[in-house]
Design goal:
Blueprint: H1 42-50, E1 61-64, E2 69-71, E3 85-88, H2 91-96, E4 100-101, H3 121-131, H4 142-149, H5 153-164, H6 168-186, H7 191-197, H8 203-214, E5 234-239, H9 246-256, E6 262-265, E7 268-275, E8 278-287, E9 292-298, H10 305-315, H11 322-330, H12 336-341, H13 353-362, H14 368-382, H15 403-408, H16 418-433, H17 444-451, H18 459-470, H19 481-491, H20 497-503, H21 511-522
Parallel strand pairs: 2-4
Antiparallel strand pairs: 1-2, 1-3, 5-9, 6-7, 7-8, 8-9
This protein binds zinc ion (ZN).
Zinc ion binds at residues 3, 71, 75, 77, 102, 104-105.
C-alpha cells in the first residue's frame, strides 16, 4: 500500500521503533504471535479490507509488510497484496509488531472499541485507568497498575495479550502516540503542549518517539491551516461506530441536565467540568457525516486532556460495538421492534461516578424533573464557580460538588428525608476512602453487592449506579417502574419485576441496552426528540 511510506523514502522493513517495542516482526501471513487473541480469519479480514468495510473499523488493523505501515480496514489507499498483510485486533498490537500508523487513514481516528473486546472486566478497568494516565508519568508501572486492579503483574500481561494482542506498556504507548497525532492533526496546539497533553515526559522524548516511528519530527506531520491559528479551545473529533441515536442521547441528557452545570442548547450539549481540582467547560455536538462527535474543551491544564476525552467517551457511550449489541437484542421478539425503531440507541454514562451516585439517590422515588431540581439546589449550595474565562455559556457557572466538599459540609442543606441525607454523606465518605468505588468489581452481582454495603443504597440505586457510573453494561434495574411500564406498552400484559428479570437472562451481557430501549418505549421524558434530526454536520 503506498500509504505514505515516508515521502521519497523507499519502503521500509518494520522494525522495533522504540524502547518499548522489542518484539520481532510477525512475518508469516496472518499468523499472530499472540495467536490466542480472537480475530476473524485472515481471509475474512482481507475481504473487509478489499471492500473497505466500515463494520470492521476499530476491530481490525492491517499491518503491511512491504511498507511497514498499519492501516484501518477503510484506508483509501490501494489494497495491498494478501501476502503482505498481517491482521491485528488493536492498534497497539500492530505498533508492537513494528508497524507505524498510516498518515492517510489515521488509525488514531478509528472508533475506540478496545474495551469491548472479550468480557474481561480486568482489561476494561485497566484500559480505563490507562486512559486516565495510569501508565504515564514518573513512578508509574505495570506492577502498580496490576496492584490497583487486584491481580498479579503476569496475569495482567497475559490478559492483555489475550484480549488486545499487546502488552499494557504497548497499549499505553500507542495511546500516547495516537493521541499526540490527533492533537497535531486536529488542533493548532504548540508541540510542547501536545507532548505534555499526550503524556510524554519531555519534549525530547516526544520528538524521539516520532522520529523513530515516522522518520520525521512531529511538527512535520502538521498540515498548516492558516484559518485555524491560535484557538481558545481544543477541538477534537471522537469517532463512533454507526448507527448512533443522537436525538435520544440528547433528550436523555436534557431531561436530567443539572441547572448551572449542564444544558442542551441548539442541538449541543454543554457542561462544566472539574478534573483533579482544575475547572473548565466542554461542548459536544454531533458531526453526523463524519460519524463522530465534535468536542470542544476549554480547560486550564492540557495534561488532563486524555482524562477529559475518556470521560466524554464514557458519557456518550462512544465505545459501544452497537451493531453487535443491536443484533443480540433483536433475537428476542419483544425487543426486536424496539431496536428496529431506534437503531444505535446508546446507554448514557456519566461524567463522574460520584455525581451519578448522588443523583441516583436524589432520584429515589421521585420524578426525573424533581430530582433535577434537587440536584440544582445541591449545586447552588455547595459548588465552586467556574472562572469567567473558562465558561462556555453564561448560565453554566458552577461545577458539581465533589465528594470531599459534601463530606466536609456541616449540612447538606436540602429538604429531603434524613435517611437520604445520611446516604449522601455515606456515599461521599465511601468515594473518598475507595477510589475504585465506581469501577467494575467482578461481575454485575458483585458490583451491585459492593455498592449496597453503603447505607441507604438498595438494589435499584446500585443497579442504576452500576449502569451509568461503573459502566457495567449488564446492569439492569429490574424493579424500575419505567422499565415495567415500557414492557407493558408493547406487551399489554404488565410483568412483575421477577418475571422481567427472568426474561432478561437472554439479553445478557447487554441488559443495560435493553433497559434503555424499554425506557425509550415508555417514553417518560427519556427519549422524545427535542431537536430536528440532522444537526451540526
Ligand atoms: Zn491507511
Amino acid at each position: 500500500m503506498p500509504a505514505f511510506a515516508g515521502g521519497t523514502r523507499p519502503p521500509v522493513t518494520p522494525k522495533a521503533a522504540s524502547d518499548h517495542v522489542r518484539k520481532p516482526l510477525v512475518l508469516a501471513h496472518g499468523e499472530c504471535e499472540n495467536s490466542d487473541m480472537e480475530l476473524p480469519s485472515a481471509e475474512i479480514c482481507f475481504r473487509a479490507l478489499q471492500s473497505r468495510d466500515s463494520r470492521f473499523d476499530g476491530l481490525i488493523f492491517v499491518g503491511v509488510t512491504s511498507t511497514g505501515i498499519y492501516c484501518r480496514p477503510i484506508c483509501p489507499a490501494r489494497t495491498p497484496k494478501f501476502q503482505h498483510c498481517n491482521f491485528f485486533g488493536s492498534a497497539a498490537a500492530a505498533q508492537d509488531a513494528g508497524f507505524r500508523p498510516c498518515l492517510r487513514c489515521r488509525p488514531e481516528t478509528a472508533p475506540d472499541l478496545a474495551s469491548w473486546r472479550g468480557t474481561s472486566n480486568t482489561v476494561s478497568r485497566a484500559l480505563a485507568l490507562i486512559a486516565e494516565g495510569a501508565l504515564a508519568g514518573e513512578g508509574s508501572s505495570v506492577e502498580k497498575l496490576a496492584e490497583r486492579l487486584g491481580v498479579g503483574e503476569r496475569q495482567l500481561r497475559r490478559l492483555f495479550l489475550k484480549h488486545l494482542g499487546a502488552s499494557p506498556i504497548s497499549v499505553a504507548q500507542t495511546r500516547r502516540v495516537l493521541f499526540a497525532k490527533q492533537l497535531i492533526h486536529e488542533t493548532q496546539m504548540p508541540m510542547t503542549e501536545v507532548a505534555m497533553a499526550a503524556g510524554f515526559g519531555s519534549l525530547r522524548r516526544f520528538n524521539e518517539t516520532f522520529l523513530n516511528l515516522f522518520h520525521r519530527p512531529p511538527s512535520a506531520l502538521r498540515r498548516t491551516n492558516s484559518k485555524k491559528l491560535k484557538e481558545k479551545d481544543v477541538q477534537l473529533r471522537l469517532r463512533y461506530r454507526p448507527p448512533y441515536d443522537w436525538d435520544c442521547m440528547l433528550a436523555f441528557l436534557q431531561a436530567r441536565a443539572v441547572p448551572g452545570v449542564e444544558m442542551v442548547n441548539g442541538g449541543r450539549y454543554f457542561r462544566t467540568v472539574e478534573v483533579d481540582g482544575a475547572i473548565g467547560s466542554i461542548e459536544v455536538s454531533h458531526l453526523i457525516h463524519q460519524q463522530s462527535l465534535g468536542v470542544k474543551i476549554r480547560f486550564p491544564d492540557v495534561r488532563l486532556l486524555p482524562a477529559i476525552v475518556a470521560r466524554v467517551r464514557c458519557l456518550f457511550d462512544l465505545g459501544a460495538d452497537i451493531e453487535t449489541i443491536d443484533r443480540h437484542l433483536s433475537a428476542d421478539p419483544m425487543l426486536a421492534p424496539l431496536v428496529a425503531r431506534r437503531p444505535g440507541l446508546r446507554a448514557p454514562g456519566g461524567w463522574d461516578g460520584f455525581e451519578i451516585a448522588v443523583r441516583a439517590v436524589l432520584g429515589q422515588q421521585i420524578s426525573v424533573a424533581a430530582a433535577r431540581g434537587l440536584a440544582g439546589q445541591l449545586v447552588a449550595v455547595h459548588s465552586r464557580s467556574v472562572p469567567k474565562s473558562f465558561r462556555m455559556h453564561p448560565d453554566l457557572s458552577q461545577v458539581f460538588p465533589t465528594a470531599k466538599r459534601l463530606a466536609s459540609a456541616s449540612s447538606i442543606g436540602l429538604r429531603i428525608p434524613m435517611a437520604r441525607l445520611r446516604t449522601l454523606k455515606a456515599i461521599a465518605e465511601a468515594a473518598i476512602s475507595d477510589s475504585n468505588l465506581f469501577r467494575p468489581f467482578g461481575n454485575i452481582e458483585q458490583t451491585v453487592a459492593r455498592l449496597q454495603t453503603i447505607p441507604g443504597i438498595g438494589e435499584w440505586t446500585a443497579q442504576y449506579i452500576a449502569l451509568r457510573a461503573v459502566r457495567d453494561m449488564d446492569a439492569f434495574p429490574s424493579t424500575d417502574i419505567g422499565l415495567l411500564r415500557g414492557v407493558a406498552s408493547i406487551n399489554a400484559d404488565p410483568p412483575s419485576a421477577a418475571k422481567l428479570l427472568n426474561r432478561a437472562e437472554s439479553w445478557r451481557p447487554w441488559r443495560a441496552y435493553a433497559a434503555q430501549h424499554l425506557w425509550a418505549a415508555d417514553g417518560s421524558a427519556i427519549c422524545k426528540p427535542t431537536t430536528p434530526a440532522a444537526l451540526v454536520g
